[in-house]
Amino acid sequence: MTANVTSAPLIVTSRIERERSHLIDDYLTTGGYVALRKALLEMHPEEVLNEVMTSNLLGRGGAGFEVGRKWSMLKQAPVRYLVVNGDESEPSTFKDHMLIERDPHQLIEGTLIAAYAVGAARAFIYIRGEFALGLERVQNAINEAYEYGAIGRNIFGSNFSIDLVLHPGAGAYICGEETALIESLEGKRGYPRIKPPYFPAVIGLYGAPTIVNNVESMSNLPWIINNGGAAFAALGVGRSTGTRIFALAGHVNQPGNFEVEMAKISFRDLVERSEYGGGVRFGRSVKAFIPGGVSAPWFGPESLDLPLSQDDVAKAGSMLGSGSIVIMDDHTCMVRAAWRITKFFNRESCGQCTPCREGSGWIEKIMRRIETGAGRESDLDLLLDACDNIAPGLSWPPQQTTICVLGPSIPSSVVAGIKMFRDEFLTHIKEGGCPYE
What we know:
By secondary structure, this protein is an alpha/beta fold.
């Protein structure tokens, strides 16, 4: 973790390097729970909402929807819930994992601020079950916060009371989807719900209106309340405000999490600057990269100068998504890369929808056939045809044929691979193997 190279402050990672950053005594010495006191004792819930609306904070979980706008859509009801999504199952995405382990009190404070703003009767933090250390630290932090008086009855002498529950997930990728997460939280199998009618803001956890927000989204809230939504909105460009953590992975010298000011640096900066990725390993060049998690369509090296901006990346035909950027160097087998991503989606499909359940398996088998040297030229058209049945038109954003977006995300890597590296696919087919072996 290194400092932002622009003048922007580090908003969610300022404590990460501290040895005791996960403990409440360290958190309090660095301004912890000041924002919660301010929100509860000096602001009405509507004022908290207005600050978040002013900040134009976009959700950091994948969809990039405005957090304040999402809160404003919550249906009025006697009981409402807040759920924090800490499942983080996207391959090569590890930013929330870091925040959970290294700064759990920041997450808790943000969650409590959000709960106050939306009038939640109870809040839940749902964390992927494999995050053993993170689960231990968050539970310990929750216990510390109860003892300190930041959770429970009449917090800090205010009229606001709430309980916070930590729930470990069972390790299914699909539970990163908000309605599948709600099903899991209710003790059921993680099947996504049909929307409409099951928009969480209308019918969510236990049938009550529910807000589901990402870990990094929640972790921004203490800074926004302390410094104001306008200060957050002043960072970045356009709709891409504030800072964001990007999980840089793949063939770079220094993979890791880097918090940067949105839209002020490019993918090239993140890859090549010594403060960040430090260049491509072994002095090689970038062959392709995935800009926002393996669900996202690939970019070629000509797109490295795109800014890390929600809208610019969307206009170019992909997404920032989960904040994971995967670099593939010029020695990468693109057939193998696309096959492994497809294999992952096939394994993680919940099986509820036919296009995803059956289509992912068909595509994975064809891709494996090509990768192992047993493919045929007609397989390329067959692959595109199968992909078109899952995501008609093969455009981005994809057309929806399934209950959730997992299905239409499956073709992204296969279609990008064939369009960008068709010759490499043909080499596998004609020569019976990979040229990089």
